Amino acid sequence: MKKATTVQDLIDSLDGAVTVIGNVLKVQDQFQLPGKIEYLVNSAVFSEGLTRDTARWLIWEIAQEIGIYVASIHDLYMEIGKGAVPTTFTVPAMNIRAMNYNTSRAVFRAANKYDAGAMLFEIARSEMGYTDQRPLEYTICILAAAIKEIYRGPIFIQGDHFQVSPARFQQDPDAEIQAIKNLMDEAVAAGFFNIDIDTSTLVDLSYDTLDAQQKDNYEQCAVLTKHARAIEPDEIIISLGGEIGEVGHKNSTVEELHAFMQGYLKETEGYTGISKISVQTGTSHGGVVQADGTLAEVNVDFDTLHDLGQAAREDYGLGGAVQHGASTLPPDMFHKFPEVGTVEIHLATGFQNIIYDHLPPALVEEAYDYLRENLKGEWKEGMTEDQFLYKTRKKAIGPFKEAWWSLDEGKKEEIGAVLQTQFEFLFDQLNISNTLPLVTELIPQVPMRISRPTEAAAAVEAEDVSDLDD
Asked: For 68-357+407-442, CATH number?
């Protein structure tokens, strides 16, 4: 893998395509960029210090110059909530955990084929640590992939499950909420203009009334909503999501939706609120793994999903209900989500599984050896080795990131082709063809320049996210 060792290496690599004078970047020939971008993105991820950060700045500014821009999907969801845009498609929210640049390239190839623009790239609070991807790096890899594949238009990047740890909240609520505020600050600065606030972990079903059960949930969601509004850039309304039921637990009800929303609206009076609501309808993150390593069959309650989405739109003007934990569902289920008016669906583990299925066997075994040695504490009594490895293998992504990025081009193309086929299938089933003109019209580019770095950014201290969802 080729990467820069100095800032001057980066500038020299762009000769003929881009000029950089001080803090000002100009694109001279955008058609040369696809041939030059891989060196930049490798440097943005694997170089060090100021060289790394300058590579990130260059990619951000080049994208801005050629009409690739980070944006909020808020206006689209509000138009759906008003009935101005029909509920005939479901927006895929894709957690790109591994080989970000290569995987995102596959997304954009599929999007170009279908003229698709109503799609989200996302990463959860928990994923940032074990995939070794802080927000700015995550954004830059996606922008670089768009440059490589000659995609133009808004790109929606989302903080998924910005989730409250119930244990830490019980111990020190102010500190836990401040930790999420700090993450929001970092993410918004990196172009995450879509954030899923997940305070559903605070729902307490031991109370007799729905309001009491949802009270901590809606109050803390409101606190984080107000913080998002305080830090959002001019001319941008960050798209926010709330959640009424923790994924993997009991199915949500319309009555719970009303209890949450009525309390939330009182707490956020005078503020722009959420644009969607996440619900539980029978899925779990990553699927339920059986003893032989295969996934158990899942039954999604599509009637509940329909009723919750309809209530969210008709009673509160939201875009609708959001389905989590869906990437490992049977293929014949996906067409049903737009049929019942699901506004957004979250997809993660299935893409990770494709990569594992197509990595060289020696690299997979090396990753598994790492898990056996370093995560043995998560091998619970009664768990088979297949169950343990499937459950934990996402945590090998960060430690083996550079090795996977450094695969030979033929292997990366093979993996990218399989991923592209899956993205094309999903885009077709979720009916997002021809949505790029729609989102481009609704969500024009807001100039969002960042300053050229003069010194290396400080590293962000890792946090304990072992009890959080993906």
From this structure: 3.20.20.70
Query: Which residues, other chains included, contact 246 with Cβ-Cβ below 8 Å and sequence gap of 6+?
Result: 200, 201, 203, 280, 469
273-314: pLDDT as tens digits: 999 999 988 755 445 555 666 555 667 889 999 999 999 999
Taking the model in full, what pTM does it have? Answer: 0.95
Strand 239-243 to 321-323 pairing: unpaired
Structure-block tokens of residue 1: 């893998």
Q: Any residues with CB less than 8 A from the CB of 77 and at least 6 apart, and which? A: 239, 275, 276, 318, 319, 320, 343
Residue 30 DSSP code: G
Q: Do 288 and 253 touch, CB atoms closer than 8 A?
A: no
Strands 120-124 and 153-163: what pairing? parallel
- Within 8 A by CB and 6+ apart from 250, the residues are 205, 280
Query: Which residues are paired to 21 by β-bridges?
Result: 24
Distance separating alpha carbons of residues 288 and 88, to the nearest angstrom: 30
Q: How many CA atoms lie within 13 A of 449 on its CB side?
A: 7
Residues of the chain with CATH 3.20.20.70: 68-357+407-442
What does the DSSP 8-state code read for residue 295? B
Residue 370: exposure state from Cβ atoms within 10 A (0-12, 13-18, ≥19): middle
Amino acid at 418: V
Backbone φ, ψ for residue 141 (5° rounding): -60, -40
Handedness of CA 224, 230, 231, 232 (dihedral sign): positive
Q: What is the rounded CA–CA span in Å between residue 48 and residue 438?
A: 40
